[in-house]
Amino acid sequence: MRDDLVDLLRTIDSAVLGERIRTARLRAGLTQSQVAGDAVSVGYVSRIESGQRRPDTGLMAVIADRLAVTVDELLLGVAPDRIAELRLQLDHAELALATGSPDETLEIVGRILVDPAVEDLAELRRSAGYVRASALEATGDLQEAILVLEDLAEASPPDLDWIDGLTALSRCYRESGELGRAIEVGTQGTRHIEEYELDGLDEAIRLSLTVAAAYYEQGDAAYAARLCQRAIDRAEAVASPVAKAMAYWNSSVIESMRGNASAALPMTRRALAVIEATEDARNIARLRTHLGILQLRLDPPEPQEALELLTHAADELAFTGAGPADLADNRIAQARARFLLGDVDGARRQASETATVVRSSMPILAADAFALLGQIAVHEDALDTARSHFQEAVLLLSGMGADRAAAQLWFELAGLLESVSEPAAALDAYRRAAAATGLVAPSSRRMTPATTR
Questions:
Q1: Which fold has domain 3-77?
Q2: pLDDT > 50? residue 447
Q3: Class of domain 359-438 (CATH, top level)
Q4: 422: buried, middle or exposed (CB in 10 Å: 19+, 13-18, 0-12)?
Q5: pLDDT digits (tens, 9 = 90+) for 368-413
Q6: For 285-304, b where at least 16 C-beta lie within 10 A, e where not — what string?
């Protein structure tokens, strides 16, 4: 008998098991005496069926054989063929997600989770939950994904799927602006990883890198960089291609956000070279997008090379079912590359379409798109239009929390507002940039000395 069935036999409700054995016996048209045979007494079979006794593994196998059913069916309450059918459906759902159809994934998983047979299949139900969370994240429904992942984090055992689930939860918290929760979840996961000595596994390294990203967004760039360096060291030590690619990738993101694109570029190229040897098509596409963005941040920028990379990556992202944030990042970068190359109409069209798509779900990306539209308007001497676009960006950013990405965009927006003779708005944007990094005005820190009487 398989180990998981042995464990289930020890913990299953005796009354539930007894009822299943009785139902199978009646269905087979056998008496308790025929089931007992020479293995046990008729009275013992009767007590098993009434839930007063629990058979050991040997007797369980004998009973299942005489009833012409499997041990799986008696312990799980579901026939093996039905279990195989449900697992095949879940495989189909995962394939749909991997090929860019998260809505189809949600439809399939929804059918699986309401199937009465799944009620007794805890592992299958758990796996379906993780697939559902991934599909929800891919559609941009971060709040619903968080609810699913929070439940799974509490109910799941601390195994590799659980670690991946914590990584997804931390990432969803970060993308929704809940940076404190993103760090807290990662820290809890790290304690369990250390306890079970799983530090060198790809899953553990991915979690630490996700937490590093949250620290960076919170403004602690130095600590985030150290976490990434530790992840690189662990990945090199265990010679894991996936972990190395993720570590170099996250380090390059942090370097680029610190304004050091020239240092980030070789890290990204190294990560891409490593991950291209794998079959992780989605992350290959995401890395190509990141590399294209870095080429636009160089001094001087390399827009032609960037656009070629970005258009290639866009096709790959669409095929692999990337999330809306990845698609939006790519499209905004493409628009910026087209603007630098002189394709003003193409840049405006792509930035405008992206702003419309992500405005309600991803305000910081929409603000970035509106800021680019404002730059295009300035280029065309349409200053009123530019002011309108910049104000749209201001409104979107005003609803954001304090994080590094928001601070960077506020700072860039301040300079753009200055360029259209909006000094008051520019000053306010500079102040908001400072506030988003955690800085406070001197007056709020001023202390009143004690007076003597």
A1: 434 Repressor (Amino-terminal Domain) (1.10.260)
A2: no
A3: mainly alpha
A4: buried
A5: 999 899 889 988 988 889 888 888 887 887 776 555 666 777 788 7
A6: bbbbbbbbbbbbbeeebbbe
